[in-house]
Amino acid sequence: ELESLSSSLAMEECMAYMEHLADERNLDLPADADLRATFVSQLQFAPVSQCWYFALLAARATNDYRTKYRAGQKQIASYMLKRLRTTGESAQAGNWENRNFGRIKALQRTIYDDDLHDVFTGWGESAFDQEIRALIA
Hints:
Blueprint: H1 2-25, H2 32-42, H3 48-69, H4 73-92, H5 111-120, H6 126-129, H7 132-136
Helix pairs in contact: 1-2, 1-3, 2-4, 3-4
């Protein structure tokens, strides 16, 4: 139950960051269910900080794609999801150096994160920087 709760909170943090990146760049997001499924999959092998890095790379690539090809909203959203997935798959396969990404001022820790990871689990910021499964073990 603790892993499920922590994973849900981690996924919501990833969703919030992707929404922030999309708003910042005026990009259209993929379908909510598709984006959530992708983050759930990535959080099975990567910490939140690394998933944020995947999201940043996907947003940058999508912005470049939109500029270069003058793509429509559906193509932009589809491309963003594809880049997010392929970046995660490549990292999982070990094809590139793992990088973690720090929190940004616009998206500081939430009250829920503070309560769950500082008070209940005692993991603190480790819940952002390390895989949840590794913390539970």
